[in-house]
Amino acid sequence: MGRTRTILLALGLACAVAPAAAQDSEARTIGQQRAAQIERENYREQVNENVLFLMSGQPDDSYVTLAHDIAVVVDDGLRLRVLPVIGNAAVQNISDVVFLRGIDLAFTTIQVMNQLKQTRQYGANLDRQIVYVAALSNDDMQVVARPGINTLEDLRGKKVNFHTNGSSTALLSPRIFKELHVDVQAVNMPQADALQKMRNGEIDATVCICPKPVNILSQLKEDTGFKLLDIPFVAGFHDDYLPSSISHDEYPALVPKDSRIETIATTTVLVSFNWPRGSVRYNRTVKFVDALFSKFSELQRPPRHPMWKSVNLAAVVPGWQRFAAAQEWLDRNERQMVSVRAGLAKVLEQGASTAADNDRLFREFMDYMRRTRN
């Protein structure tokens, strides 16, 4: 009987200990799961904290190439990422910066900004809703025509593609053609679609007001018979556009050798929403500006778009406010730029006898500026 009582007591103790051990194990498992979840959420926050979204353009636009260039150059892992977004170009991009959640930056043009401010399409204070980071490329008006179309006059009454709705091409081209007194049947579609319809004889020309060279146009072959048309710089363009030209080297299949196509140009601008100073989105954009400006020399080297070589970050967009941190960056660096500018000019005069030498010395100078700022 005593032995039985001992066995029963031992069994009772075992039954009491087992649930306690199970509870401890379950508590440890829950604690580990909670720790893992917290770690995951912290990582999620870190991933999203320094990501900016940049509206570019249609897949066949130069804007996509420019956005990709920026994303590659400023990328710093979890500390800074820029994600390009396929957009509908200059007009729609302004709407997206103003209204679309999550969009931080966008490409547009000075002419589109001015026209939208004048028409008040997005309110009476557009110049206070958006700010510019930098003026970038001069975007040439490129009119590509089918065989048999040799001048702009030959397009009178013909079907001409003015790119997609929401693009600067779609907004500005009708006024340009009107100023030149050339009435056409306007259609709107992506450039790839327009080129195919030109091959099929369904339309006669396509227009792109874009940074040159546009990849899809530079890939055309001479056997298409397509050509670029001259755009005269008439008096009505003096206030809003720049005279420009396009060379055979830029489009071997579209421009005859040893000749140039005369045209007009707009100016692409990188813009941001006017975030309140000190806000999360403002501080995130500050990081982007510092990376973009400090690493700008990297954008001017192959394989980046040739447009970057002609950009002056300090160029002013009249009538518009620059993003405050961008202006502050330029102000901080202006004294240093002035102090070395004379020395650079002297080096170029004494040691650079060819254009290649000039280009090499300029790259070295930009590298020096980047190293001294970091």
Q: What's the SSE pattern?
A: HEHEHEHHEEHEHEHEEEHHHH
CATH class identity of the largest domain: Alpha Beta
Helical element count?
A: 12
Largest sheet: 10 strands, mixed
General form? elongated
Q: Flag low-confidence runs.
A: 370-374
Write up what this structure looks like.
With 374 residues, the protein is of the alpha/beta class. The protein has two domains: 39 residues; 324 residues, D-Maltodextrin-Binding Protein, domain 2. Helix content is 47%, strand content 17%. Strands 1, 2, 3, 4, 5, 6, 7, 8, 9 and 10 form a ten-stranded mixed beta sheet that branches. Helix 11 crosses helix 12. The C terminus is likely disordered.
Short note summarizing the structure:
With about 375 residues, this protein is α/β, with parallel strands linked by helices.
Write the layout of secondary structure elements.
Layout (H helix, E strand, L loop, with lengths): L1 H48 L1 E5 L6 H13 L6 E5 L4 H10 L5 E5 H10 L6 H4 E16 L13 E3 L6 H12 L5 E3 L3 H9 L5 E6 L4 H4 L8 E2 L13 E6 L12 E14 L6 H15 L1 H4 L24 H28 L3 H19 L1
Parallel strand pairs: 1-2, 1-3, 5-6, 5-7
Antiparallel strand pairs: 3-10, 4-7, 4-8, 4-10, 9-10
Characteristic terms for this protein:
374 residues, D-Maltodextrin-Binding Protein, domain 2, 2 domains, ten-stranded mixed β-sheet, disordered C terminus
